[in-house]
Fold this protein.
Amino acid sequence: MNAVDSSLDAAPIADWRSYPISADLVNLVPASDALDTHWSDGRVSPFHYQWLRDNCACGQCVYSVTREQLFEIVDVPEQLHPQRTRIDEQGHLLIDWQDGHHSRFHPGWLRAHAYDEVSRAERRAQRPQSQLWGAEMSEQLPQFDYQAVMADDDALLQWLLAVRDIGLTQLRGVPTTEDVLPALAKRISFIRESNFGVLFDVQSKADADSNAYTSFNLPLHTDLPTRELQPGLQFLHCLVNDATGGESVFVDGFAIAEALHQEAPELFHTLCETPIEFRNRSRNSDYHRLAPIIALDAYGVVSEIRMGNFLRGAFDAPVERMPALYSAYRRFIAMTREPRFRVQRRLDAGQLWCFDNRRTLHARTEFDPASGARHFKGCYVDRDELLSRIHVLQR
Amino acid sequence: MNAVDSSLDAAPIADWRSYPISADLVNLVPASDALDTHWSDGRVSPFHYQWLRDNCACGQCVYSVTREQLFEIVDVPEQLHPQRTRIDEQGHLLIDWQDGHHSRFHPGWLRAHAYDEVSRAERRAQRPQSQLWGAEMSEQLPQFDYQAVMADDDALLQWLLAVRDIGLTQLRGVPTTEDVLPALAKRISFIRESNFGVLFDVQSKADADSNAYTSFNLPLHTDLPTRELQPGLQFLHCLVNDATGGESVFVDGFAIAEALHQEAPELFHTLCETPIEFRNRSRNSDYHRLAPIIALDAYGVVSEIRMGNFLRGAFDAPVERMPALYSAYRRFIAMTREPRFRVQRRLDAGQLWCFDNRRTLHARTEFDPASGARHFKGCYVDRDELLSRIHVLQR
């Protein structure tokens, strides 16, 4: 058996991750359409023959340069069976198929992909958990040093994990130059462009095409709720802030959703189940998106908040459901105003917010543009990029 | 009846669309929490007082420059009632609220946002419909002239509507220079960047980081199924194609989903309901996304296909559901190979494919890199941008 990575004995693995061996294969019991594998810790993991053949990572089935599959399962009969199965001296699973093909599976990889009930529950329990926060976060902001994040991969990883799990971070010691955001985004991957540009300038403008570009109080919101995919991370970099007022306000939308779930479950479900139209108003663009305010992932866990009162269209729901929708919406907005959830902080020159735009709602108190200059530079990076970078750094 | 934007008499409208008046308000019947409006064609549309107050577009409630809402519904009592309601001489709905606020609603706007059952069904029926296609599309490709699309907004709109509704188009008369794609994307909005860059080069490479960059046969797939949001539009611009082989193949994923729904509904539902992990393999990135192969929108209509056998992770489903998942997956792949669905065409220099990457699966037949040069330039633009541009062009 030939090898792929470093060891002559290793079974090929069709990705770049590593799979430590936490248990050994001790016995194989072939059933009619699956192989029951028995592990040294007593777990039994059935693997269907289809599944095993599908995941063969040999040099014929997977192109070794890209590690991408060449084989397609539809090219073998649905009833394909092994002629022989065994555990070799290195503890790998070997299968000789009826059609003459041979497969070899690394026990660490196999265990990491087992789909018996226990293995699936174990993987689910290992998913990253959001750490919910409220007003107390004001005194314990996750702060990171810009130069460290730029120079050191460990510092970078710690910062990105805080962005992922807490959703609100501040960088300090940031130069007040306009090349900071592109350089910082490059530490993750690349900037997500929008109709406001690659970078945007948060300043009061006479010809504003968004209330963000006025000096008004802005209610708590997510950016670009009018898009199918709201931007994942938002960066706000303070170049100058000499104006009176204009403090940054944040709430943890996941914490509010959780509190609503506890305190008024029927209102929570209304916000999960009722699609709302968000619609921008602009001479040059006309984005709209129909989506619920609270989105759940495939596991039923809150994964996204979508909120922007000034970008919301008229509610469109069956007549009999409209009062409940207003009750739920009012309650959510009222909660974003409750002191228990709110973090209010002034951002000074040389500081930078980076937060999860799909979780952490942000706002700005009114400011007086005559009192001094106020200029923030902003950009977005998507969640995919954050998570991919974390995975690569953790390899 | 006056027009909307130009007249002093017009009720303000908080967006940039226009709302022709298709029926007149003829009677108002206040109920306990809603106003029943009667229209000249007999329709009755109830509007809750909350809803009416929420959608007041006066200069206090909406900032006239951005047309974005300043008012928040939570700032008035939930039980707010009108003191007086009437239809004025211009046919607008006037409301004097108990708290002294006044609202005025344009009848065209009101009708367009009515949420009685008939109005909602009417709007739903007006949604754009996908035109499904099969092998016959090979002889009736929607073809457009590059120069016309670049110079003329009507030609642009016709092309974009074909992209939206058919999902497969070809441009002809395209210069074979590398500045074409940025210029063309700018006619819509901007390019969506990915880890493969702003523009990507589809060429056979020795150090390929994707099977796309080899000369292999590529099975039918969508691009970047490993991302939360797959790119909406894909552009493939042929600069040179002197190689033997390497024909473009397309199938309408929506047509296959519809056929599967008809021919084997239980397999269709399995593909709608089972999240599959897509995972890229790369030294520099590690994207993964758990999502079903067939996605439905809020109306239950097929809105997206996600497919890439070479970017698929191992299936992870409960043991008892694994055989059904393989049956459904095999059937879908087998259908992508059926001649009734397949369009196979060679793209020559000066031609360009633009297709809906979330609907139209694409592939390439194997080619011989020694037989001649083959170089396609590619990029992505998201669906949001396509739809926004169409809306603005249609105003």
Observations:
- The domain at 25-126 of chain B is CATH 3.30.2020.30 (NE0471 N-terminal domain-like).
